[in-house]
Design brief:
The chain has one helix at residues 101-105; strands at residues 2-6, 9-11, 17-24, 32-38, 45-50, 56-58, 66-71, 76-81, 90-97, 118-122. 35% of the residues are buried. It is mainly β. A hairpin with a 5-residue loop joins β5 (45-50) and β6 (56-58). The protein is built from 1 helix and 10 strands. It starts with a strand and ends with a strand.
Amino acid sequence: VQLQAFGGGSVQPGGSLRLSCELSGLSLRHYAIAWYHQAPGKEREGVSCISAAGTTEYADSVKGRFAISRDNAKNMGYLQMNSLKPTDPGVYSCAAELARCDHLLTLYIRPGNWGRGTQVTVSS
């Protein structure tokens, strides 16, 4: 099983990015997909999660700005990031687990496989 996040880059404050999470080796259909953010020098934190049923959850810091989605047919997850702030930069990683989104976002359950992350930079 391999996970890879991509789509990061450098944008100005207020800009947008769309991150993608690609899973290979098994079907995403029954898994929750979670996105995590690790700012420089800080612990990894949960950003957003979408359950297998399509229910979404967000950290307070990104509510109203980020939107998570999934495409089971393509085995992909996505994170649309809008109105990016100087507090958003860092490495974004995705995970796919048979777990509740609230457990994944709070890291009560730590994913066994983070996959390769993607770097996001926000600067003017």
